Amino acid sequence: MKYFRIGTLNCQNNADNRNLKQKENALVLANHIVEKQYDILGTQELTKGFTRQVNEYLEIYTFHGGYQFGSGFFGTKVPIIRDYNESTQILTRGVAEHVRTGALPWIPWNFKEFCRALFKGALKRRIVTVVELETIEHYIYIINTHLDYYLHNLQKRQLNYLYKKAKKYAALGDVVIMGDFNLQITNPMFRHFENKLNEIGIRRVNVDEKTNSAKYKSKTAIDHIFIPSYWKIVDCGTFDTLALSEITDHKAVYVDVVFWPEV
User: Is position 132 within any domain?
Assistant: First the structure.
């Protein structure tokens, strides 16, 4: 049976990946991608320099998506911005039809919350990347993102934004949503989001085991993948390799699917 492998991985925007160990870590990440044979991989926190290094080791894959501060003067020339300018890029085998990167709601409406986020260092422009893939049957829309981790009101607005995007694209084709949601499956907001997606024919892949740093001992999965309800799941789980631990404190989440199981 021919299946397609879809994954999501927070690659962690840390000092090693930005600087001294960038080339070494890029090779580790590229080897993981090739070894696990992803067809689609959503990434979070990849900086421009690290992406460029990884891309040098990949032949059949293409990165799609922009950066949180863009690719103009501000995002590429201002050192403190350039070095931390990260993305929610989607990696695919071959070239996508259309690619869009836009901002999630990321500025708190409440002034006190704005100040709290600012002093916490959590005020961060959050983005979402959408890739359109054309298949023999119809279009598949891949949505990849990274939600706020600090303010519940922002997370709620971001989930609502994603739901509206998913509903829009679901009228045009199949929809896959993936990313680091910074929310566990027990969170009421996340459960509401999941239920709303179920209503439009999109279900979460049931990978519930811990996917983030070991220091958060009480947390379960915060990295998630959603797929069309009628797709057949062949296998799913996490990749928790020793090599990846040199790059990130997240596990890679994956699902192997058959797009049209009735055929």
Answer: yes
Distance (Å, whole) CA 111 – CA 156: 17
Identify whether the C-beta of residue 184 lies closer than 8 Å to the C-beta of residue 12.
no
- What span, in angstroms and rounded, lies between the C-alpha atoms of 13 and 2? 34
* Angle ∠(49,51,57) on CA atoms, nearest 5: 115
User: How does pLDDT run across 1-57, given as a tens digit for each residue?
Assistant: 578 899 999 998 877 777 757 788 899 999 999 999 999 999 999 998 889 899 999
- How many structural domains does the chain have? 1
Q: Which pLDDT band, with edges at 50, 70 and 90, does 74 fall under?
A: low
DSSP structure class, residue 67: B
Name the amino acid, one letter, at 124. Answer: K
pTM of the predicted protein model: 0.92
Instruction: Decide if 263 is inside a domain.
Output: no
Overall residue count recorded for the chain in this entry:
263
The answer to whether position 200 is within a domain reads yes
3-state helix, strand and coil shares in percent for the chain, rounded to the nearest 5: 30, 30, 40
Give tens-digit pLDDT for 225-260.
999 999 999 999 999 778 888 888 889 999 999 976
Can you tell me whether residue 118 is helix, strand or coil? Answer: helix
Domain that holds residue 130: 4-258
Q: Which of 226, 215, 218 is nearest to 250 (CA)?
A: 215
Cβ–Cβ under 8 Å, residues 89 and 65 = yes
Beta bridge partners of 15: none
133, part of any domain: yes
Q: Domain containing 166 — which CATH number? A: 3.60.10.10
